[in-house]
């Protein structure tokens, strides 16, 4: 074990000295873990605040003429907070998983070489897990610092007609520890899963075999997702407590999103095959890359799928002041504010995920980039190809997820048509979020240009 750790440290040191950009991946991985941890701390601390307010509700909710108002309102807020937390936890953890998979191709090829010279499978996996755990641990510490730096902004927000206090955001030690352990476990599991081919067949990685094509049975996943979302109307009409309804609501939405994770890569591969019939070199390169690895193309924008679902669901909330009493007005304003916070966090996660996957792709495809450059292909072609590479998945993801979200909102429109209404405000929200997501994603793809220039400026033999 000691020799394995020593070799892992030596390889990490050599990678940091590498001039081809692999050291940048370690920096990006730590930064991604830091962002994921910070967002997890923000979401968890907000949920903890609403849980504390349930036991000590704001003074304006405590009324003698309505003794059950405080308990009912605070329970509803807590249920909504848990719901938002559950929605965001998947993309946040997905960002951590992307950090653990960063540079997976180059890492797999390097470790496959170690397998070929005699290292045991367990030693190879152990080295990679140690690397990821160290990166995740550093990221967690930095994430805690980012959370602390964000508290002045968080305390400027108002919920339930009461400003958020710093003391309300302080979580108990066991919650901090639980979040840290989840991030560490995610890093370890993602690393192990990413090295499955190295453990089973190092020659397969060394020869860079192509993954098999996706099958059409994944269309069934879309059908199941639509059926699940369509059942939300009967859930809303059930005579049970609000917390139970919210939990069932979240469960069905998670199932629908999971089905979309199965369906979307197949759709991307199908559309990319159609799009590859083009005379544009940049579009051809982008479409062939998506066909070769549709799962990676989907991971580029999978966090934005959650945004689309939330936008489709919450776009029914009116922007204007449509309410029948002050209590309802406060709750609607808080829901809108919470939805905007959820959008912002999910957009940040999506942009960070795109930067990670595109940076990893640049390093993993360094040989391809150099070959195209030496053949005389303009460097602007690869830049345009990367824009096409993220644009198609972005449009497909947002279009599908927004449609599912709108379908989920139909029962709400039918049950509460006096408060919820599809109209100009809905189109404004959908258009604004789509535009912001498009701009952020394209900017994230363009942010890898310095890394591409660095890879192209390096002159080295393939086996060095």
How would you describe what is shown here?
The structure is a single chain. The chain is mainly alpha-helical and 464 residues long. The chain contains 19 helices and two strands. It has helices at residues 2-17, 22-55, 69-100, 104-116, 121-154, 166-169, 173-194, 196-200, 202-206, 219-230, 232-236, 242-275, 281-292, 294-314, 326-364, 366-374, 379-415, 424-446, 449-457, and strands at 158-159, 162-163. Strands 1-2 form a two-stranded antiparallel sheet. A hairpin with a 2-residue loop joins β1 (158-159) and β2 (162-163). The chain is globular.
What is the element layout, followed by pairings?
Elements (H helix, E strand, L loop, with lengths): L1 H16 L4 H34 L13 H32 L3 H13 L4 H34 L3 E2 L2 E2 L2 H4 L3 H22 L1 H5 L1 H5 L12 H12 L1 H5 L5 H34 L5 H12 L1 H21 L11 H39 L1 H9 L4 H37 L8 H23 L2 H9 L7
Antiparallel strand pairs: 1-2
Helix pairs in contact: 1-5, 2-3, 2-5, 2-7, 2-15, 3-7, 3-12, 3-14, 3-15, 5-7, 10-12, 10-17, 12-13, 12-14, 12-17, 13-14, 13-17, 14-15, 14-17, 14-18, 15-18, 17-18
């Amino acid at each position: 074990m000691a020799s394995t750790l020593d070799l892992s440290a030596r390889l990490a040191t050599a990678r940091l000295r590498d001039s081809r950009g692999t050291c940048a991946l370690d920096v990006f991985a730590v930064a991604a873990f830091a962002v994921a941890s910070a967002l997890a701390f923000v979401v968890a601390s907000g949920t903890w605040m609403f849980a504390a307010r349930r036991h000590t509700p704001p003074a304006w909710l405590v009324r003698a003429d309505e003794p059950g108002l405080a308990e009912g309102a605070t329970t509803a807020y807590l249920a909504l907070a848990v719901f938002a937390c559950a929605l965001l936890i998947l993309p946040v953890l997905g960002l951590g998983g992307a950090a653990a998979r960063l540079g997976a191709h180059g890492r797999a090829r390097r470790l496959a070489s170690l397998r070929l010279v005699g290292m045991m499978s367990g030693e190879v996996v152990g080295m990679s897990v140690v690397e990821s755990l160290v990166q995740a641990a550093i990221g967690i510490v930095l994430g805690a610092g980012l959370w602390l730096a964000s508290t002045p902004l968080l305390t400027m927000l108002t919920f339930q007609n009461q400003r958020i206090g710093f003391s309300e955001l302080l979580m108990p030690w066991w919650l901090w520890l639980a979040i840290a352990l989840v991030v560490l476990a995610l890093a370890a599991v993602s690393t192990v899963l990413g090295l499955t081919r190295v453990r089973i067949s190092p020659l397969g990685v060394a020869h860079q075999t192509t993954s098999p094509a996706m099958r059409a049975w994944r269309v069934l996943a879309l059908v199941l997702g639509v059926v699940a979302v369509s059942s939300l109307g009967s859930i809303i009409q059930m005579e049970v407590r609000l917390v139970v309804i919210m939990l069932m609501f979240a469960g069905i939405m998670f199932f629908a999103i999971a089905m979309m994770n199965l369906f979307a890569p197949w759709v991307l591969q199908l559309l990319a095959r159609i799009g590859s019939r083009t005379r544009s070199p940049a579009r051809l390169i982008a479409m062939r890359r998506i066909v070769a690895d549709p799962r990676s193309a989907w991971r580029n924008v999978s966090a934005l799928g959650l945004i689309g679902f939330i936008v489709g669901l919450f776009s029914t909330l009116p922007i204007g002041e449509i309410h029948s009493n002050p209590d309802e007005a406060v709750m609607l304003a808080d829901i809108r504010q919470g939805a905007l916070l959820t959008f912002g966090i999910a957009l940040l996660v999506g942009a960070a995920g795109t930067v990670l996957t595109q940076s990893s792709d640049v390093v993993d495809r360094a040989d391809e980039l150099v070959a195209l450059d030496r053949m005389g292909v303009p460097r602007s072609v690869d830049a345009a190809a990367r824009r096409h590479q993220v644009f198609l998945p972005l449009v497909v993801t947002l279009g599908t997820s927004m449609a599912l979200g709108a379908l989920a909102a139909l029962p709400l429109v039918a049950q509460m048509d006096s408060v919820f209404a599809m109209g100009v405000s809905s189109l404004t929200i959908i258009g604004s979020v789509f535009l912001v997501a498009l701009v952020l994603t394209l900017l994230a793809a363009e942010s890898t240009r310095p890394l591409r220039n660095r890879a192209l400026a390096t002159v080295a033999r393939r086996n060095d």
